[in-house]
Amino acid sequence: MIELKQVTKRFKNKAVVNNVSYSIKEGEIFGLIGPNGAGKTTSIRMMTALLEPTEGEIYINGMKVAKNNKKLFEQIGVVFELPNLYRKSSIRKNLKIFADLYGVKDSRIDEVMEDFQLTDKQDMRVEKLSKGWKQRVLIARAVLHNPKVLFLDEPTSGLDPNTQELIRRYIEKINQNGTTIVITTHDMNEVERLCHSVGFMYQGNLAKKGNLKEIIQEYKEANKGADISLANIFAIITGGELS
Ligand SMILES: Nc1ncnc2c1ncn2[C@@H]1O[C@H](COP(=O)(O)OP(=O)(O)OP(=O)(O)O)[C@@H](O)[C@H]1O
Ligand SMILES: [Mg+2]
């Protein structure tokens, strides 16, 4: 379980995450959604100890999130939008560096390369790969050590439909095997397909949080029973008009 307790992040006195408290259940796929600049990436950076909260605390499976908590890093995997790979090294070498760091066997490298169809390309230098293929390497690297919790910041954005589908199926597969997933995305269809629960962030606040089906039902009832999509709900929460 992930728990945020009154978490605030200020940059130069401006709260970009503002006194936010919520929890994410073990085994669920949790979608953190909201407009550009809402504070999603900042939240994930705090949950993964890349950024320290100005105030508040975060716990993952009872462990306080902190930079020096080595045990925490054994349990989490992270994929950010920036492809922070060794550009001059091959796919395999990039995975091997992480595998060694985590004490992961070579056979596991082969396994994740199979999952992401990287086997044939394993000797290619990362700098020669297109965005989608780099993204496969990034996710493969993040799951090498079988983390209990996987954080994915916009994992499918800007990718072709086949690659998006491969990634979504992989997310579903490891979730079925017990991995908790925290994902951000601007694709509301993706959220409806993948997520059990969502947290809507708006201007640094948690505007709404809960079970996805229940939230949709709640807005449907408020909308006199007419069907309502997550994109409609997004528009309502962010002050847009319902079309
Ligand atoms: N290091 C930083 N210094 C100053 N301001 C920052 C810093 N990092 C983020 N911000 C600001 O914090 C706010 C939230 O940014 P964040 O990246 O968390 O948004 P986001 O919800 O992930 O948006 P997007 O959907 O565009 O990815 C933005 O206004 C951003 O400019
Ligand atoms: Mg972001």
Give a description of the structure.
- The chain has 243 residues and is α/β, with parallel strands linked by helices.
- It has a single domain, classed as P-loop containing nucleotide triphosphate hydrolases (Rossmann fold).
- It has helices at residues 40-47, 70-75, 91-102, 106-115, 131-143, 161-176, 188-194, 212-222, 230-237, and strands at 2-11, 14-24, 29-33, 55-60, 63-64, 76-79, 149-153, 180-184, 197-202, 205-211.
- The strands form two sheets. A six-stranded mixed beta sheet has the order 6-7-8-3-9-10, sandwiched between helices.
- Helix 3 crosses helix 4 and helix 4 (106-115) crosses helix 5.
- The longest helix has 16 residues, at 161-176.
- The radius of gyration is 18 Å and the shape is globular.
- Bound molecules: adenosine-5'-triphosphate (ATP) and magnesium ion.
- Magnesium ion binds next to helix 1.
Count of discrete domains: 1
Strand order of the largest sheet: 6-7-8-3-9-10
* Total DSSP helices: 9
Order of helices and strands: EEEHEEHEHHHEHEHEEHH
β-strand amount: 25-35%
Report helical residue fraction.
25-40%
Mean pLDDT: 94
CATH homologous group name: P-loop containing nucleotide triphosphate hydrolases
Q: Tell me about the biggest sheet?
A: 6 strands, mixed
The value of Rg in angstroms is 18 Å
Structural class comes to: alpha/beta
Question: So what's the overall shape?
Answer: globular
CATH class: Alpha Beta
**Ligand names:** adenosine-5'-triphosphate, magnesium ion
